[in-house]
């Protein structure tokens, strides 16, 4: 496959591109705390979006825990949209800001809509933050679900691969 030219709107997302791996911790008022391993891959096809694929596994057994896929859609004015789908029946539409930093980039988005399949758990609101500092990507996730208010749920620290 030939190298595709990066769309100009994606320039601020260059620090995210590639594969990241590491570990994370999860906690929520309705469940026991847990640890997990995570792989996060960002790529582009020359269009004005960056694709994201995420997979997590239970740290000790290696069994799959979660997956999601989506698209970062930079708007060129410091704002960004994220459209995200999960096999658990949850679709998130988020908007927020993208900020270039001396060490990388910060993307901070909050949900403008969370839609659930009839069989999915009810999630009312989400927020996500991705921060690249050099070769480290920190990811944080908040959600309002199961009758709880917006609460920090996940944090992971990933290292760029390759």
How would you characterize this protein structure?
The chain is mostly beta strands and 162 residues long. The protein has a single domain (8-160), classed as Calycin beta-barrel core domain (Lipocalin, Beta Barrel), CATH 2.40.128.20. Helix content is 0%, strand content 67%. It has no helices and ten strands. It has a ten-stranded antiparallel β-barrel with strand order 1-2-3-4-5-6-7-8-9-10. Strand 3 and strand 4 (64-74) form a beta hairpin. The two termini are 19 Å apart. 26% of the residues are buried. The mean pLDDT is 96.
Sequence-ordered SSE layout with sheet pairings:
Blueprint lengths: L17 E11 L2 E13 L6 E9 L5 E11 L4 E8 L3 E12 L2 E13 L6 E11 L2 E10 L5 E10 L2
Low-confidence stretches: none
Strand order of the largest sheet: 1-2-3-4-5-6-7-8-9-10
Average pLDDT reading: 96
CATH class value: Mainly Beta
Q: What would CATH call the architecture?
A: Beta Barrel
* Class based on secondary structure composition and strand pairing: mainly beta
CATH homology group: Calycin beta-barrel core domain
What's the order of the H and E elements? EEEEEEEEEE
Structural Rg: 16 Å
What can be said about the biggest beta sheet?
10 strands, antiparallel, barrel
Q: Whole-Å distance between the termini?
A: 19 Å
CATH-assigned fold name: Lipocalin
Strand content: over 45%
- Give the tally of β-strands: 10
Total number of helices: 0
């Amino acid at each position: 496959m030939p190298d595709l030219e990066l769309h100009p709107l994606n320039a601020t997302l260059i620090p995210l591109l590639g594969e990241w791996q590491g570990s994370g911790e999860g906690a929520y008022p309705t469940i026991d705390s847990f640890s997990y391993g995570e792989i996060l891959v960002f790529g582009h096809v020359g269009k004005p979006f960056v694709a994201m694929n995420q997979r997590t596994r239970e740290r000790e057994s290696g069994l799959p825990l979660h997956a999601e896929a989506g698209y970062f859609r930079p708007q060129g004015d410091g704002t960004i949209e994220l459209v995200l789908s999960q096999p658990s029946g949850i679709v998130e539409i988020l908007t927020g800001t993208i900020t270039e930093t001396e060490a990388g980039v910060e993307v901070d988005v909050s949900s403008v809509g969370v839609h659930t399949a009839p069989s999915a758990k009810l999630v009312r609101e989400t927020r996500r933050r991705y921060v690249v500092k050099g070769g480290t990507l920190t990811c944080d996730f908040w959600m309002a679900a199961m009758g709880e208010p917006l609460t920090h749920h996940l944090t992971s620290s990933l290292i760029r691969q390759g």
